[in-house]
Specification:
- With 316 residues, this protein is an alpha/beta fold.
- It folds into two domains: 4-113 and 238-309, 3-Layer(bba) Sandwich (FAD/NAD(P)-binding domain), CATH 3.50.50; 116-234, FAD/NAD(P)-binding domain (3-Layer(bba) Sandwich).
- It contains six helices and 19 strands.
- The chain has helices at residues 14-25, 60-73, 134-137, 153-163, 182-190, 284-304; strands at 4-10, 30-34, 47-48, 58-59, 77-80, 83-87, 92-96, 99-108, 112-114, 130-131, 145-149, 168-172, 194-197, 200-207, 211-218, 224-228, 231-234, 238-240, 270-272.
- The strands form five sheets. Strands 1, 2, 5, 6, 7, 8 and 19 form a seven-stranded mixed beta sheet that branches.
- A hairpin with a 3-residue loop joins β14 (200-207) and β15 (211-218).
- α4 packs parallel to α5.
- The radius of gyration is 21 Å and the shape is elongated.
- It starts with a strand and ends in a 12-residue tail after the last helix.
- 43% of the residues are buried.
- Bound molecules: NADP nicotinamide-adenine-dinucleotide phosphate.
- NADP nicotinamide-adenine-dinucleotide phosphate (NAP) binds next to α4.
Length: 316
């Protein structure tokens, strides 16, 4: 008979490993399955200044390793494999490229990846002037001219971060008003080397072996222009990694897994945590909070056998 874990966590970011920590600490037999390296998107972030307890900030990679170590201290195990299919039931089957695993509860913590802009040659020029992580790659552009596309908090944060490295930063936004919070707008207005191009979209890239300039379209009046840049940082939101639950659990129109503050999905025994679930604020701390909550309900689901009472899934 194959081993049946109390809890399998798919995804080794802050939400996943916090579920593993709380689950293991509550005495559950927990396995985390991670595709590449721990930390999720957080590991690609530079300094994290808004995670409590680190008064001088901490880099995302180190925080990821420490959250993993905290879970493993209580007995959680990690397997590096790619999950290819989830089959609900009792037990739940987790099919991977390294074989099948079985569990009584599943914590879905796969996160979200950066949305592409969708212009020609964008993907082939990644690393050659096209980037999705200012904190990871901004340091290559000290004293250079860069552009950020997007109008949300991430784009504003990226533009500000880059303004301390680059000599000139264009922030390109398709509307006449930024979506970003006022605190960022004020900071951007005060940054002398940041120029905001409103009502503007990136139509195409001019490149040889790397990106050299951007062809821009005005969304008002239809004007066209070209700006020379050394790099374009794409910061236009995220796409949830929810394909494994498509057709199994309820997803919202944007693809986020529908789960309330209990993290319970529409499927018994399956919990969704972190950036992949429907929620207002996607941050490291809210992912970690989700993880703790999921472990609480998973433990309750297992220990009280309350399937019939609906402990394991949300009411539709
Ligand atoms: P977001 O808030 O969804 O903003 C995405 C931005 O990209 C929007 O301005 C959008 O334009 C633009 N956009 C989307 N698709 C585009 C396209 N194809 N071409 C051009 N522009 C496009 O995403 P985010 O900035 O990544 O933030 C995600 C979440 O994390 C948000 O909840 C945010 O508040 C949070 N966050 C918080 C902090 C913080 O509190 N310190 C920092 C970063 C992120 P429109 O405005 O026209 O839709």
């Amino acid at each position: 008979m194959e081993k049946i874990y109390d809890m399998i966590v798919v995804g080794g970011g802050p939400g996943g490993y916090t579920a593993a920590l709380y689950g293991a600490r509550a005495g559950l037999d927990v396995l985390v399955i991670e595709r590449m390296s721990v930390g999720g998107q957080m590991a690609l972030t530079g300094d994290i200044d808004n995670y409590p307890g680190f008064d001088e900030g901490i880099d995302g990679f180190t925080l990821g390793m420490r959250i993993q170590a905290g879970a493993e201290r209580f007995g959680a195990k990690t397997e590096y494999a790619s999950v290819t299919e989830l089959i609900p039931g009792m037990p739940i089957t987790v099919r991977t490229d390294a074989g099948d695993y079985f569990c009584r509860t599943l914590v879905f913590a796969t996160g979200a990846y950066p949305r592409k802009l969708g212009i020609p040659e964008e993907e082939s020029l990644v690393g050659q002037g096209i980037h999705y992580c200012a904190h990871c790659d901004g340091r290559f552009y000290k004293g250079k001219t860069v552009a950020v596309v997007g109008g949300g908090n991430s784009a504003a944060e990226d533009a500000l971060y880059l303004s301390h490295l680059a000599s000139k930063v264009y922030l390109i936004h398709r509307r006449e008003e930024l979506r970003a919070d006022k605190i960022y707008k004020t900071a951007l207005e005060g940054a002398k080397n940041v120029e905001i191009l409103y009502n503007t979209t990136v139509a195409s890239l001019v490149y040889d072996e790397r990106v050299r300039s951007l062809c821009l379209d005005s969304t008002v009046g239809g004007g066209k222009s070209e700006i020379e840049i050394d790099a374009l940082f794409v910061s236009v939101g995220r796409v949830p990694e929810s394909a494994l639950l498509d057709g199994i659990a309820e997803l919202d129109p944007s693809g986020y897994v529908v789960a309330d503050e209990t993290t319970r999905t529409s499927v018994e025994g399956i919990f969704a945590v972190g950036d992949v679930r429907t929620k207002a604020l996607r941050q490291v701390i809210t992912a970690a909070a989700d993880g703790a909550t999921a472990a609480y309900y998973a433990e309750k689901y297992i220990s009280t056998g309350e399937e019939a009472a609906g402990v394991g899934h949300i009411d539709k």
